[in-house]
Amino acid sequence: MSRLQVVSGKGGTGKTTVAAALALALATEGKRTLLVEVEGRQGIAQLFETEALPYEERKIAVAPGGGEVYALAIDAERALLDYLQMFYKLGSAGRALKKLGAIDFATTIAPGVRDVLLTGKACEAVRRREKHGGFCYDHVVMDAPPTGRITRFLNVNDEVAGLAKIGPIHHQAQAVMRVLKSPETAVHLVTLLEEMPVQETADGIAELREAGLPVGGVVVNMVRPHVLDEDAVRAARGDHRDGIAKALASAGVGGSARLVGPLLEQAAEHAQRVELEREQREALAKLQVPTYELPFLGEGADIAGLYRLARELRKLGVGA
Amino acid sequence: MTLEGVPGLEVDPLLDDPATRIVVCCGAGGVGKTTTAAALGVRAAERGRKVVVLTIDPARRLAQSMGIDQLDNVPRRVDGIEGDGELHAMMLDMKRTFDEIVEAHADPERARAILGNPFYQSLSAGFAGTQEYMAMEKLGQLRSREEWDLIVVDTPPSRSALDFLDAPKRLGSFLDGTFIKLLMAPAKVGGRAGMKFLNVGMSMMTGTLGKLLGGQLLRDVQTFVAAMDTMFGGFRTRADATYRLLQAPGTAFLVVAAPERDALREAAYFVERLAAERMPLAGLVLNRVHGSGAAALSAERALAAAENLEEGRIVDQGPGKTGVRGPEATSPEPGAPRTTAALPDAAATTTDVTSVVNTDVTAPPAVAELTAGLLRLHAERMQVLAREKRTRDRFAALHPEVAVAEVPALPGDVHDLAGLRAIGDRLAAGRH
User: Fold this and answer.
1) Confidence of residue B317 (pLDDT cuts 50, 70, 90)
2) Nearest C-alpha of chain A: how many angstroms from B92?
3) CA distance to partner chain B, nearest, from residue A43 (Å)
4) Alpha-carbon span A88 to B176, nearest angstrom
5) Could you tell me the residue range of the domain that residue B66 belongs to?
6) Least CB-packed of A17, A236, B122, B223 within 10 Å?
């Protein structure tokens, strides 16, 4: 069972929602999880309807059975200052560095340093132990950058270890890489049953595999039920216009003659969607990665919806 | 489909106006930004303009639809455009763009030193922001070539839609910053009288950085910075020029979104940010909006009618079976009655079919079932419409001044020019 669960996905597929639901799902039965955000978007705070998260681990939800979800919005600048403090006891010198623009340089300009700090902080939380020796968090779930950048983001430490050949950053980068490439980590990709996200997921998995990063599962989000089954869709293609008009009239729908056309048109669109989704499911099956489907939440992902998705993820056994 | 009180975005007049020289498409990821940019390019070209589309990271199929599936950083003419106009398209290669800047602004020897520097190689391949900066750089280049009368730009898939506005400034301020000056000319600063304090600060700093990064990386950085010295002024000047270009009257920003909460929230941020930066917003393109030709029939009535049809069939199939209605009325589970009612008539189905014809439900069961399905499908569609309307209304209440073009949802993805053309038609017709 992987202790670091990285959740990525194409923009618009709901990766933050899935990451949060996964943190909840893994927290049930008295477990403690940490949900981390690395992109400074405050997506977790919006999702849990709380004020912006500070750079501090704080409890944001309680899971069924007494589990706890903590959240942390990792800030690269603060992570760097912490890090300098930890290793060099810099104190006021850290502030001087900041004034000179060195911190800004390190966190926004210097290649990879930002990503090293973000992944480093997450890995630190994964490895952190309590006084009695047990792990602080049973699981750490990361709301990671999107599919297009995930391999680069996770693999940045390899590059940095090559660039900074000695020194603490080199060692730190290597330590982080050891966690990320081990079975302790699982990278999940969130997608929709649409062509572009599925294609991007396939590309993402290929890139992750090539980089030697452990692929977890594919989470297919926002799956809508098929109101008409395939037989009905086929039946709708036949000419039943008169019959349908009569049936509508008998069911008390006025102006039924004018409705038949648009209703059949909607059925044709539905049929096309069913067909496209079937193709995308096939494409996903070829990836040979466990695939999990989550239902579409009509009213958007509010807190109740989040708990519902968490129950689904638990049922499906994602991350377990 | 209509939004009361919201101005419509007139896409064709915008594209036709010779004064429009740059259209920037921005918005959250996954809302169809690149597709919108490509569709606008096709439409403008077919309306007679000479257009270049700069895409950042197109999906393979979309790139193929314009014949630019190879990455080469050079605008290529797109075949199959109808009319007198021309369409050129290109995909940004950020490393190549960065290399070109170096080659154009440094003498060959210095350029070689920079291109071979490990720090430069990492920087150009993508520190957070290179892509945004290079997109703006490329835009400036395309504009200064005066070869096209309209440039349509797609923006990078950033962690935040606002990154591409900030990144050039960030790079500019870094290049102008104290830190880089210290890194660049330690001897000069340290040698001056009265600068002892700074010198101490500096050596402490480079000492720390050296420890942190490893001395070799720091030396790489210093060599890089020294080699780039002469180019810094140029970077800064061009970043400022591109920024001013974005504020110029010939530029039009289109914020792209889908009628979903998060995408519209991001769109609202963007609208506010553009206003704060005095950048000209043309309007909002709302992709994937659902409609219905049967919108007069509400979700509630459709569901009620569907139930009518389903119940009607059940009742008619069991004439004389007095128990049928009983469990239905008392069952707490809405899904349960159909099963309980359907079970007893399984054996009697064939004989019951005839009885159905003679009752007030004149349609045969298969058609009744099909019609009920159509009604349920319609109810679902109407619920989607209602949800989308709520999110749009929320946006419109916050920003009533923003003109909106709605693009109806397509069931599939776009694969060719015809598909892009169809989107363009929808875009142009999308003003309500």
Assistant:
1) very low
2) 15
3) 9
4) 28
5) 11-177+241-290+409-429
6) B223
